[in-house]
UniProtKB/TrEMBL annotation:
Taxonomic source organism: Paenibacillus oralis
InterPro entries according to UniProt: Flavoprotein-like_sf, FMN_Rdtase-like_dom, NAD(P)H-dep_FMN_reductase
GO molecular function: oxidoreductase activity
Protein name: NADPH-dependent oxidoreductase
Keywords recorded for this protein, A-Z: Flavoprotein, FMN, Oxidoreductase
PANTHER family in UniProt: FMN REDUCTASE (NADPH)
Residue ranges constituting the NADPH-dependent FMN reductase-like domain according to the UniProt record: 1-145
Higher taxonomy: Bacteria, Bacillati, Bacillota, Bacilli, Bacillales
């Protein structure tokens, strides 16, 4: 089983820190889990314009294939203007509707106000529903105050929520794999 973390931003490190932290915790819970973190800053994604996937640049095609090949996900975004990042929205637009179908998705977000956690509930979870993904019940939202000067998570409650989300992703994905294999 492969867990792919996606840091859905082109700037900063807080979202990547949060995504990587949940992925690392999941790997400790299930050492057989293959993990990878996709940092969108490392991809030259083209803007989605509806053309066939084969007509996008190689970097865009690699990102799409990496997502399709994974079995479960931790997807993170900074919250800008009470919404997910444009980079992450563009990535979702590039994907086929079947990319997350029947797979587990856990969400994390970072932001500058304490109300921005609502973006996960009101925007990201409905997007997962469109893709017919199984969404982990918990999510993690971290305010900039939850990070220290080195952009490391310093809030104990956030760290506990990261543990909980990792456990849910591992448990749900394992259960779905067992069912699909008839175990």
């Amino acid at each position: 089983m492969k867990l792919l973390g996606i840091s859905g931003t082109l700037m900063g490190t807080k979202t990547l820190t949060l995504v990587s932290g949940v992925v690392d915790r999941a790997a400790r819970l299930n050492p057989a889990l293959q993990t990878e973190v996709m940092d969108l800053r490392n991809y030259a994604l083209e803007l989605c314009d509806g053309r066939d996937r084969a007509h996008y640049n190689e970097s865009t095609q690699q990102a799409i294939e990496k997502i399709i090949a994974a079995d479960c996900y931790v997807i993170g975004t900074p919250i800008f203007q009470a919404s997910l990042s444009g980079a992450l929205k563009n990535l979702f637009d590039l994907l086929p509707a079947t990319a997350f179908r029947g797979k587990v998705v856990g969400f994390v977000g970072t932001g500058g106000t304490y109300q921005h956690f609502l973006v996960i509930e009101n925007q990201l979870k409905p997007i997962a529903g469109y893709f017919k993904a199984y969404t982990a019940p918990d999510y993690v939202y971290a305010h900039r105050d939850h990070f220290n000067g080195q952009n490391e998570i310093s809030d104990l409650d956030v760290l506990k929520r990261m543990d909980s989300l990792a456990a849910q992703i591992v448990h749900m994905s394992g259960a779905l794999t067992s069912v699909s294999q008839g175990v």
